[in-house]
Amino acid sequence: MEIPLSVESSPSSPCSENNRSFQMAFKIRSSKFRHIYGSIPKKDLCYENIKITRNTHDSNFCAVNPKFLAVVTETGGGGSFLCIPLRSSGRVDPKTPHVCGHAGVVLDIKFNPFNDNIIASSSEDCTVKVWSIPEDGLKTNLSEWIVDLHGHKRRVGYIEWHPTAENILLSAGFDYKCVLWNVEQAEPVNVISCHDNTVFSMSWNQDGSLFSTSCKDKKLRVIDPRMARVAAESPVQDNLGSRAWKSVFLGDTGRVFTSFHSRFCDREIAVWDLKNMSAPMRTEGIDNSSSILLPYYDQDTKIMYLAGKGDSNIRYFEIDDESPYTHYLNSFITSDPQRGLGVMPKRGCNTERCEVMRFYKLHASKNLIEPLSMIVPRKSSVFHEDIYPPTASQIPSLSADEWISGQTRGQILMSMLDGHVTNSPKVSSAKAVQNKDSSLSQAPTITTYKAVNRPRPEGSVSTQPYAGETTANTNHRNIPASLRNIKQLSTNEEFVSIKDEPQSNGIPLEPPSPSGQSTVKKVWSPASPKSPATNGFAGGDSDSVTHVKKVWSVPQSPATPHWLGESPPNEAELRKAYFKQLEEISSLKEQISLKDKRIRQLEEEISVLKLPIAREINVQDQSEC
């Protein structure tokens, strides 16, 4: 009897159905980043002899860009951090100049995404400071800051720059508050007081219209910073432990990634949808280690890197738009634990090596900082467009005032090949709801807060003491403007409108400007009537709040309507006109770009038409010769 070595099954046979089910069960998901690996450079490319801070705070303690490397160092008395040029690898001189101006230990540092020479730092002295690093690095210790922001009552643990707007900074303190700062004006924009406990992390979405926070009260919040209100909030997560947990926005997908410890001390990750915050879309266990997982998301490649403080490995997952949303790729394991990681912006990665991410590892047991390159294995060193999509550039999409006024614009992207800009994102106004009566509700305030102690032009403000104010009480004007403005934002007091004549509910502190289109007027609103004991200030406190508001003051003329000389009667109409002007400006810009494009097309057509004419002229000249 002959036994067949192979059997061919028909499409309808049960054997073929079993084969198909077997293939579906063991189907391998294809990914271009499946074989990504980590690479450790040679010793001469590392940074040695740096006394890294031993603080137990759960921030990175490191910031890096294509120019500089900054790391918080261990110092006695006050706080300082080291900022050296990126090319200065090898053994660092112990006498290298530091940035030292904080009275307390530095807890977090972040470089400005639009200016490589600007860095912000937060400290235990309850302040946030902004520094300017010289182009060639520090020659002496830097103790003079360019901006000093006061407002938090307790230490400031985390800071984050805005991803699209210039000079907008977000800070979170251990006073349970998040403060939005306008660094350009050295003033607060909003104070977010929706948290009931310590804030553990902050993360902006891709266009900077929202940011997420993870809090010790076991709630995940998504906050609208300009409205200073919670846009989405999760219920109290009973499965969370007491350790710190982190949240990261997944680009512009409307999802948030979290890493946390469960009640049983297991480390887990979860993905949340902003449209339904009642429960996470997916939860996955990692291991049972006790260290805090720090997530680092690359929105270009959609890869999430997880590194634990005290761990010696880095896990990476690929984020997908479909269930199960997270796909484990691999782990990069080293022999030494890490204290923190600094992340190089994508524009600083080496495309010839197919480097998609570069970390700067702070060793926990050594005075060493080690660059770690995550590389996609490719045979050729040419530019690969599939792993290098357009990335965020150094060009801000909006100014600080434009963003505060309600405009939203996506990131301006650039090519990793030659650095040219690849897109022109459209500007959209704030998400205001327009009613049938043409009024806007929930629209941002157009009037911005101005610093009080800023140098004023001569003749605009009298240098003499205010009415009812003694020389001793003039010291309240020496308080930092950010501190006084933060008080006015922390309270729910409304501004008191004043005219040129005195009123009973407020004492004019400054005479109005006789001419000009806008003036800054100050109102004194004490909690109790003025008395000699208090000198007009509530409770005799020299830190009393000074309210500042821009009001219109246009000189009267026969051609000028009567209402222009006073405060605008209807604020809704002004807002409507403001956003209408923004739309007109954007439409004009589009028309100009279309006309420029048409001009270029006509020039190309003319050049094409000139070629045959020039050839005929050359042929005629040759025949005549």
Automatic annotation (TrEMBL):
It comes from the Eukaryota. Transmembrane segments: none annotated. The keyword Coiled coil applies. Residues 460-477 have a biased composition (Polar residues). SMART domains: DUF1899, DUF1900, WD40. Keywords: Actin-binding, Coiled coil, Repeat, WD repeat. Residues 453-480, 499-539 are annotated as: Disordered. Belongs to the WD repeat coronin family. GO terms for molecular function: actin filament binding. WD repeats lie at residues 99-133, 149-191, 192-224. InterPro entries: Coronin (IPR015505), DUF1899 (IPR015048), WD40/YVTN_repeat-like_dom_sf (IPR015943), WD40_repeat_CS (IPR019775), WD40_repeat_dom_sf (IPR036322), WD40_rpt (IPR001680). Residues 27-90 form the DUF1899 domain. It comes from Crassostrea virginica (Eastern oyster). This is Coronin.
